[in-house]
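Re: that chain you flagged

S.,

Sorry for the slow reply, it's been a week of failed gels. I finally had a moment to sit down with the sequence you sent. For the record, here it is as I used it:
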Amino acid sequence: MKLTTLFDQAVDLDTASRGAFIVELAGRDAAMAAALTRLLDAEKAPILAEPNLHALRSIATELSVAAPKAVGGFQLIRPLGRGGMGEVWLATRSAGAAVQEVALKILRFDIGNEHARLRFQLEQKMIATMNHPFIARMIDANHGDGDLPWIAMEYVDGVNLTQWCTNHQLPVRARVALVIKVLEAVAHAHQHLVVHRDLKSSNVMVTREGVPKLLDFGIAKSTGDTQKTATAQRFFSVGSVAPEQYTGERTTVATDIYQMGILLYELLTGAPAYDLEGLAPAQIQECILHRAPEIPSRAVSPSHAKACGLDKHTQLQRLLAGELDRIVMYALRKNPAERYATAAEFARDLQAYLDGRPVLAAGQSKSYQARKFLTRHWLPSSLAALAVIAMLALTLQLLLRDSALNAAREAALVARDAATKERDKAQNLNTFLLDLFRAASPTAINKKDLSGIVLDAIDLQITRSEFIDDPSAAFALIKAALGLGELAQAQRFLAVLDQHRARYSADDNRQLLLLQANLANIEADFPRLKAINAQLAKTIHNATAQQKLIFIGYVGQTLVDTDPKRVLAFTDVKPLPASLIRLRARAFTSLKNYPSSIEMLVAASVRKDLTAMEHLSVLQSLALAYLANKEDAKGLLVTADLIKSAGTNLGEENLRALPFWNTRALALVRSHQDKEAIAVYDELLRWRSLSENVRFTITMNRLLAGTNQIAIDSLSRKLAHDVWRGRESLTPTSVAYAKIALLRVLSSERKLNEARALAASPDLFEQLEEPTITELRAWRGALSDPPQAFASGESWLTQLARVNSRDSHLHALLIKNRPTAIATK
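Prediction finished late last night. Pasting the structure tokens below so you have them in one place:
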């Protein structure tokens, strides 16, 4: 016998009978009796059935026995669920060539448990008395004469009410119509003196044809039964329990009214009336007994509005506000006497809402009834009103004729002036562009010539000062300059425009800020980007959808290294816009979730909707993710495609391509191709118009690649000393890199005393990141006399492998000192 069956029996017994029941069970199965005792102890906290039922299933899993294959001539196919008094199975019975499908409810209990037998028989009698199209009908039953009492019910092949509404995106009126049908079924049960007491979505199945069927009268009771039972206090869903059920008071038809109100609330709002998740018992009691739920129209969400076939949640709010709000809240009153008197009355109010008639819950004031009358009889009312209005309009027309003519004349003049201004604006732009291209070389076909045209155009704009009143052409030229990598000229023109921002409209100022943010992002000047983002945040709510996406991207760039989880949170959008792919992937990489980053970027690399720059950014991010995941060969291969694509789309010496070349050099270093990487860095340093920050970054990368060679060239040696001498102006991270580079140089020159003194000098470890910290400590340990092992007892070589360090000189030094340097403590 299953623990679930034993629990059903024991929970209904008084204390003395329950003790005798457990003693008798222990004589037959001590383990089962112990499990049942633990479960009943957990059940002593009244009312909170669902967590305890969860515990029941957990314990029962260990002690359950195999289910039978046949019951009462029915073959059991698969379980459908567990009700308050037993299990429900999909079962079949053959009758000649026909096969009958039923939902078979089985109760397991000891033959001597007369109380359980009587309860099961009561359910049979209740169901047998009802015959309604919206109630699952009883097909057959036995009375417990055999080992397994059962009831064969109509099998409803469908989904529960909530799921049906969601799957079909039912509008509000259709949802209300379905609830009316369920209320008709509930009213039928009440007419036969049956209170269901467990009305919830899972107990209302909807067929494929859209017909609701009320199920599971397992804890129903007769309205004439005034006895309170333990089962009544426990077998219900806490999310839909009525206050009187919670306190153990007598349940009546008002209990079913309340539960139908809860069900209607969830169908209309997509949210439970009470969010009880994680609450303590005392908090749950406070909600159920004393706190009214949020008004339905205030509880809706955008996602549920879409589930109702609406574009905006404000549309759903307007549909629910007023009558539906009042109907639901009327059914959910705490005092049973203040709710709808009957299920039929509840259904009539909902039907009145659909028909446009006055509803009981909204009150019966004269003004309200008049409004509803006019709404229902809108055509004759409208015709009568129109007749009156026409008479008034004829009178007013003569009085307002002159005024209207004057207003129309003024409006026409304003429109003409606006049109003239737009025409002049377009003509000026066309004239400017024609002048520009007439002056350009007729053979201007490559990107260098195009850069010259754009730069000449910027000079022309600044000379003519045409941007002062209309910056639209200036914005287009700045975008072109940025795209061509002419960052210095873009910066120059932006500075000129910024001086006149007080003359521009709010939209023009927003576009100006976005262009400034774009330049800061390209130059990786994140402090300036943060400051610009702070200004943009004040006006971004009025921006276009595309501008908002761009803004999100800029904000993410400033957070992705320091707060990647936050970046993942605000980029969790489906479908993910192309402009946010690289940012989201970088966030995964920052969290060392390389597989997710790589998977996303590989999928994005074959998308056809990406712009050239977006595709290049995806390839760069994919290469960096491969390198971070120690898949250096794949990273190197991707950078080859990246550089080829950048050359095709951006041309030579385009500063927009500089990060892509830098990634290529990094991949070469990781693949131990230091000479090739140095050649890339030397070529980049010859590019014109590099900003100071960018030039320094490339110089530091070149220094690290150059000093990582076993035979360090003279330029790298000189550079290492020069950078170290100027360390006072560097950040802690740059100082650490400079120190590592100089340690390599001194080690290669066998100046070990100088190297040892340099390694022993203090470092600001708390401001550094891996692998820098580990490398510095490894240098210090390897150069100590005698060499020191890693503090945890792990070898330095193992530590360096973990942080993916490729420091050739450090590795050589550690291997040379291997017997001592990597000894464990």
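What I noticed first: The CA atoms of residues 561 and 590 lie 6 Å apart.

Talk soon,
D.
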